[in-house]
Amino acid sequence: MTNKLPDEFIARILGDDSIPNPEGLLDELASGNPSVSIRHNRLKGCRPTQDADIVPWCPQGEYLPERRAFTFDPAFHQGRYYVQDSSSMALAAVIESLGLENSVCYLDACAAPGGKTTVAIDSLPAGSFIVANEAEQARAAILDENLMKWGYADVAVTVGPAQRLGRLPEGCFDIIAADVPCSGEGMMRKDPKAIAQWTPGLVRSCAALQREIIESVWPLLRQEGYMIYSTCTFSHEENEENISWICSEFGAEKLRLPEMPGVIDGHFYPHLVRGEGLYIALLRKPGNSNPARPLTEKELAKATRLMRYGSVDSEPKGKEMIPTHALALRADFDFSGRQTSEVDRETALKFLHRDAITLPSGTPRGLTLLTYEGRPLGWVNNLGNRANNLLPKHLRILSALPC
Question: 217 with 245: CB under 8 angstroms?
Answer without folding.
Answer: no
